[in-house]
Amino acid sequence: MTPRPGGITTPSAAIDLTPPDGHGPARKAAWGLAPAPCTQHEQQLVDLDTGESRVEREDNGAVANPGGAELLYWPDTCTGIGDYVLRALPNTRVGLLRADAPRTAESCKAAAGTGFAALPLSEGRDTKERGFTVGAAVCAVTADGAVAMALIDHMSGGATTDVSVSGNLYVWPQASNQGLVP
């Protein structure tokens, strides 16, 4: 682990960028989750093809039009601090690659098939037990057929504050879609 300012640590493990069969070279981007105060009534959707997120009016975790997003980060209760929950959107292939697993497109593709149920990020014990920790990755096989590895490089917040997460995103586009992916 490499120490960073503020006590945050990031793993020094290398990532094997070898594309899986039927996919092109990896593109690198950034991704993140940043909760808004519950009083703003917003939820965040994250598209793991690009790392882009958008905010829409919060609707108790319901999403009318996911627009290619794989993840939803929304305030579940708005009763205080630590109300945000992360989950995969319906009809997506999203899973968690644990911090001790090989960082390859193939292992991420396999992890994407394991599912990702709702996870209150402020509940530190639950996040650790499920493996949502610095060094792990959220993995997806996107609607475009790409394999996406969203590394959890930084986490801040916890039991008394809503959690923010950010990191590098590696996307291996499906070979037939390489020309369509920026």
What does this structure look like?
The chain has 182 residues and is mostly beta strands. It is 8% helix and 36% strand. The chain has 2 helices and 13 strands, in the order ββββββββαβαββββ. Strand 6 (71-75) and strand 7 form a beta hairpin. The longest helix has 8 residues, at 105-112. The protein is globular, with a radius of gyration of 16 Å. The model is unreliable at 1-12 (pLDDT under 50).
Please give a quick description of this structure.
By secondary structure, the protein is mainly beta. The chain is 8% helix and 36% strand.
Tally of DSSP helical segments: 2
**What fraction strand?**
35-45%
Low-pLDDT stretches are: 1-12
How much helical structure, as a percent, in the residues?
A: under 10%
Apparent shape: globular
What is the number of beta strands? 13
Question: Mean pLDDT, nearest integer?
Answer: 85
Order of helices and strands: EEEEEEEEHEHEEEE
Radius of gyration: 16 Å
Distance between the termini: 32 Å
**Secondary-structure content class:** mainly beta
For the biggest sheet, the summary is:
6 strands, antiparallel
List the helices and strands and how they pair.
Elements: E1 2-3, E2 9-10, E3 27-33, E4 42-46, E5 53-57, E6 71-75, E7 84-88, E8 93-97, H1 105-112, E9 119-120, H2 124-130, E10 137-141, E11 147-151, E12 154-158, E13 161-172
Antiparallel strand pairs: 1-2, 3-13, 4-5, 4-6, 6-7, 7-9, 8-10, 10-11, 11-13, 12-13
Keywords:
182 residues; mainly beta; 6-stranded antiparallel beta sheet; 36% strand; disordered N terminus
